[in-house]
From TrEMBL:
This is Enoyl-CoA hydratase domain-containing protein 3, mitochondrial. Belongs to the enoyl-CoA hydratase/isomerase family. It comes from Oceanospirillum multiglobuliferum. One of its GO terms (biological process) is fatty acid metabolic process. The keyword Transit peptide applies. GO terms for molecular function: hydro-lyase activity. May play a role in fatty acid biosynthesis and insulin sensitivity. Keywords: Fatty acid metabolism, Lipid metabolism, Transit peptide. The keyword Ion transport does not apply.
Length: 260
């Protein structure tokens, strides 16, 4: 790991673990922190040895959202616009990189921290984790977190969170689709690693193709989505890894992926 960097990275067996490293601030997303995370994700997007990314937070919580102290100290339109556009860049990048990104959530995930959870491809939470979009409580509606939230959960559930600003527990977060599952906190890291290892055993080419197609078709109507995904599957069938995987299945052996 890197010393006191804003984002720590540790790799093991095709899995990169990124840790937000602002524990005293509940890993609030300062401008520098978001830029550091963007830089790490850009590097990872070109790293063909990495198949899965895990994102977690240091200390007592996952992420408390934007750094309100920093924003209060820089009361200018330019700074606010830079902050929110950088946040949008970060969230988009998470879904653009070829590797699946898994949120490992403990403690709290609030405002832009909740947005981060909603944006990640998968999310697993400790059973005592809590989630909210509380901007309405301080006169600042969580408009950018709303973008990810409304794409992850039912509209009425999202609107309730946005309008009330109240915390929801991990069980309800599972029920509304914000996270995949909840486990006791002491089992969280092991469970996320287990899921990451299952995914990391797949073809990196196939993961890249599937993740990209997933987000593309989600923005299309049904007819367009079927047409697009038919083209994607045709191209995928012609890939070396698909041919290898099918042959391995038919001959009852383990596949040897080439990533192409």
């Amino acid at each position: 790991m890197t010393g006191e960097a804003l984002v720590l990275r540790q790799d093991s067996e095709g899995i990169a673990h990124l840790t937000l490293n602002r524990a005293k601030a509940y890993n609030a997303l300062s401008l520098d922190c978001m830029q550091a995370l963007i830089q790490q994700l850009q590097i990872l997007s070109e790293d063909k040895t990495i198949k899965v990314v895990i994102l977690s937070g240091a200390g007592n919580g996952f992420c408390a959202g934007h750094d309100l102290r920093e924003m209060n100290a820089n009361p200018s339109e330019d700074f606010y616009q830079t902050t929110f556009s950088t946040c949008a860049e970060l969230m988009s990048l998470i879904q653009q990189i070829p590797q699946p990104v898994i949120a490992q959530v403990h403690g709290i995930a609030t405002a832009a921290g909740c947005q981060l959870v909603a944006t990640c491809d998968l999310a697993y939470a400790a059973d005592n984790a809590r989630f909210s979009t509380p901007g309405v409580n301080i006169g600042l509606f969580c408009s950018t977190p709303m973008v990810a939230l409304t794409r992850a959960v039912h509209r009425k559930q999202a609107m309730e969170m946005l309008l009330t600003g109240e915390m929801i527990n991990a069980e309800r977060a599972v029920n509304i689709g914000l996270v995949n599952a909840t486990v006791p906190e002491e089992q969280l890291a092991d469970e996320v690693l287990r899921v990451a290892q299952i995914i990391a055993a797949k073809s990196s080419y196939t993961l890249k193709v599937g993740k990209e197609a997933f987000y593309q078709q989600a923005e299309m109507n049904q007819q367009q989505a079927y047409a697009h995904c038919s083209r994607v599957m045709t191209e995928n069938m012609l890939a070396q890894d698909a041919q290898e995987g099918i042959d391995a299945f038919l001959t009852k052996r383990s596949p040897c992926w080439q990533g192409r």
